[in-house]
Amino acid sequence: xxxxxxxxxxxxxxxxxxxxxxxxxxxxxxxxxxxxxxxxxxxxxxxxxxxxxxxxxxxxxxxxxxxxxxxxxxxxxxxxxxxxxxxxxxxxxxxxxxxxxxxxxxxxxxxxxxxxxxxxxxxxxxxxxxxxxxxxxxxxxxxxxxxxxxxxxxxxxxxxxxxxxxxxxxxxxxxxxxxxxxxxxxxxxxxxxxxxxxxxxxxxxxxxxxxxxxxxxxxxxxxxxxxxxxxxxxxxxxxxxxxxxxxxxxxxxxxxxxxxxxxxxxxxxxxxxxxxxxxxxxxxxxxxxxxxxxxxxxxxxxxxxxxxxxxxxxxxxxxxxxxxxx
Length: 326
What we know:
Elements: H1 10-18, E1 44-54, H2 65-82, E2 86-96, H3 102-119, E3 122-130, E4 136-146, E5 161-165, H4 170-180, H5 186-193, H6 199-205, E6 211-214, H7 219-230, E7 233-237, H8 245-253, H9 258-263, E8 270-274, H10 279-289, E9 293-300, E10 306-309
Parallel strand pairs: 2-3, 7-10
Antiparallel strand pairs: 1-4, 2-4, 5-8, 5-9, 6-8, 7-9
Helix pairs in contact: 2-3, 2-6, 4-5, 6-10
């Protein structure tokens, strides 16, 4: 580990903080070469995804460096989960500002280590550079899925059911607490800071579902991405959208509106479509993965839009439909 004070030089940083995270994997070449060398396994397709997080946009720079690191990894893992893929390793690009001193980097690396061990992958390479202002973190993941078994967004069929995993809306509520500078319920804030990528569920859904996406921009928006790719329409029954007991209380009291739940984003659950004939298999997959899944709607013919209905069948109007960077 590096010293707790000022940041070490670039190559000392790589050798002392990041090289140990390769776990000696031969593909990383000890982080001493210009690139990693990966050999594709027979019978598997490679899945690659990348996400960037910027301080003040995707996280608060006052948050724990360990949690920031784990969130960076997990938002990428969620992309792999939605494709039915498992992680192999990742590349880490860091644009560091003055906040990232030796102590910060050690704690950041501790977070990387925790999730590498939990989800069984390693660091394969990356790059570091100096920021003029914003702390910017990028992870690019390499995963794999059996040949021809990747779950995409473009396979939803008319008559399919719509499902979502876990509960929706906690992360957006947690972010509101963080931005307001109050502590709030720990479980709610944790849902924003440390999402649960549904790797095990995604792996088991492969072959059962017709389309999937991870809920990063918001349930309404991400189901909309499926509809656009599949050229279908979808309807969600608002009273079927699963929420935690804490969010249920807030909705009942009027402290939170339903639009914030379905458009807030950062849930990193899976929204997916499947034939009604797959219901039993989906139930078994969810049980084996230890994740609750809920049927929330159906797929119809029509323009690529998502309608949300109340119990009486009236459409619920949303002020915002999901997160968009620009």
